[in-house]
Amino acid sequence: MQYETIILELLSRIKKLEDDVNQLKQAQNTICNTPSCPDETLDEKKEMAVTYKKMTDEMIDSCYRSGKKAAAGENVQELADDIAEATGMNRNSAIMYIYAVQGMLRGTIYKRAISSKAMKKYYDIILNEYGSTGLKKAIQATRLHIAYRRGCGHTVDSIEKICNAYEKRL
C-alpha cells in the first residue's frame, strides 16, 4: 500500500516535469522564431550566428609572423586581436597558433594542437629562416607537445609522423 502512494507521487512529479519541459520548448521556439528587432529578418539573424571559418594560408602565415613577434616579447592578446580583425580568424584559435609558433621558436612546450598543414608550413619556414638549429628547437617543442597530449589521453600519431619526417632532414 505504501508503495502505491510513492509511485503515484513520482508519476505526478514526472507529469509536472514533462509539462515544464513542454513549456520551455514552446518558449524557446517563440524566441527563436521571433526577430529581436522589428526590422530584422530571419536571414539577418542567420548571418549574425557564429560561423566557423576554414583555416586559410593567410591565417597560418599571420600566426607565424605574430608568433615571431610574441617570441620577441610582444603581447599575444594584442597580436591575436590584429589577426582576428585582419583575417577573420577566431581570436582564440589565433592565440593557440601564436603560442605554438612561439614554443617552436624557443624550443619550449606548447599545449594546444595546431593543424598538420600549419605544422609542416611552420617547420619549412623555420628551416629556411633559422636553419637546422631552428628546426631542432621546433621539433623539440613538438616532442614536448606530443608527450603532453599523450598524457592527456590524445592520439598523436600524425604529429609524430611529421616530426620524424622533418627530423630525417637534419
Task: Explain what the structure shows.
By secondary structure, the protein is mainly alpha-helical. The protein has a domain of 111 residues. The protein is built from seven helices and no strands. The longest helix is centred in the last third of the chain and has 36 residues. The protein is elongated, with a radius of gyration of 25 Å. The chain starts with a helix and ends with a helix.
Gross morphology: elongated
Oligomeric state of the chains in view = single chain
Quickly give the structural class: mainly alpha
Determine the strand fraction and express it as a percent band.
under 5%
Q: Can you write the helix and strand succession as a string?
A: HHHHHHH
Mean pLDDT rating = 86
Summarize the structure.
Helices cover 76% and strands 0% of the residues.
List keywords for this structure.
170 residues, mainly alpha, 76% helix, 7 helices
